[in-house]
Amino acid sequence: xxxxxTKSPFVTASTGNHAMGAALAxxxxxxxxxxxxxxxxxxxxxxxxxxxxPEIVHYGNDLNEARAYAKDIAKRSGHTYxxxxxxxxxxxxxxxxxxxxxQQFEVLEKPIHNIFAPMSDGALISGIGCFARDAKKQAGxxxxxxxxxxxxxxxxxxxxxxxxxxxxxxxxxxPTLAASESDNNIIRNGIDFRLAxxxxxxxVTCTEAEILAALRQLHVQEKQYVDGFSALALAGFNKVAxxxxxxxxxxxxxxxxxxxxxxxxxxxxx
Length: 270
Description:
- This protein is of the alpha/beta class.
- 46% of the residues lie in helices and 13% in strands.
- It is built from ten helices and eight strands.
- It has a four-stranded parallel sheet with strand order 3-2-1-4, with helices on both faces.
- This is L-threonine dehydratase biosynthetic IlvA.
């Protein structure tokens, strides 16, 4: 946004994290942004985005329809469209999570072997993968070859299926506790997909029961109040924990966008 040569307003589409990031950045820079969000976005997410003052347009039944409409708005208005998953700077920003992890382990003087993160449309996992790949080039006693584990919900397999096929495929999706996953039934041959193909080392698929167990573990045992999308990463780790028990692993908890009442019902049965 800061380096936008045309100084034109921005348009993007999202259901949560990207929407908040775009709204916050636009607010900080004093520029305008229109965010297209699918119909039926949960109220608590909408309120979080609204606090930064963007123009919000509701369109479509899913994120793919919202993105198509956002591009149409940009084309008709002359505004600048930017993608949540096909912009190098966006992916680099997401990937700084990996930089923080590597730096923290260097301070602790401990090696790190595995990073677990949810896959969704590929933006976060590809950003993490790029920095992990660079770390491998400087591998030493504290930076062995870091492996990136992408975790996907069984109910939403678009990216996992695309990586397995070697090209983008469309899949059927079902509702999932990892809500951000269910928005993506089509993976496009964008920067994020191409990077994920070369930087994600392993894919773990989790059922809804496994995601719920991880969500309960985080809330009850760890007192980490996150949503199902974050719990997905822990569910993946739990599934292969025996395999990596002699290695050091990090689980990325990347989203706290949850409705307290909904989470309370799921976790505590209240």
